[in-house]
Amino acid sequence: MRAEHRVMLRLSNYAEAVDMTPDKVSKFMALAFMQAHIVADKLHEVVIPLLSPAKRSFAASIARRIERAAVVEETTLRELEALGNILDREIQRGTHVYWHGDESHVRGGYEVVYRDAEASELSSAATELALLKDFILASLAAARAARDVGSLIDS
Questions:
Q1: How far is Cα of residue 62 from the mean position of the Cα atoms in its chain?
Q2: Which DSSP symbol is given to 44?
Q3: Which of 58, 42, 68, 60 is nearest to 127 (CA)?
Q4: Could you give the number of structural domains in the chain?
């Protein structure tokens, strides 16, 4: 019972914090479009050149979609998720964890993470991509909520 009470308190906090208006929906969408331009640049400058030829066409198709301003769509969200997974695998390939022994350290040493230059650049691009996904998701959710609230009230 107590856990349910805590969940309800958190839910009520979220409900009070969110004031969904058409103005907020347009702000989310504006942020998504601005971030899309940043991502398109990263795709052209970093991602496409660093990916293997077999994976480049997918990243290029996403860049073209962004350039057509077809950004705030469910399909774009799914494609960005798939590209994010590809980038995560590439980043993992270029990330190495080593043990650095140190007799003065409490545990006798510590882990050192080394990321090669390509993985580091892809990581930066993946961060921008994740931010775009968040903006698109927020835009779609806000627009859907603003659209559906009237029909819910009417029914």
A1: 14
A2: I
A3: 42
A4: 1
Its domain, for residue 54, covers 37-94+121-148
- The Cα 89–Cα 32 span in angstroms is 25
What are the tokens at 12?
A: 């009520």
The DSSP H or E segment spanning 118 is: helix 117-154
Instruction: Return the bridge partners of 115, or none.
Output: 95
Domain assignment of residue 136, yes or no: yes
pTM for the structure as a whole: 0.80
Helix (H) or strand (E) holding 17: helix 2-17
SS3 content of the chain, % helix, strand, coil (to 5): 75, 10, 15
For the record, the structure tokens of 135 come out as 């903006």
Dump pLDDT digits (tens) for 19-54: 767 788 888 899 999 999 999 999 999 999 999 999
Which positions ≥6 away from 18 have C-beta within 8 Å?
none
Query: Is there a domain that residue 111 lies in?
Result: no
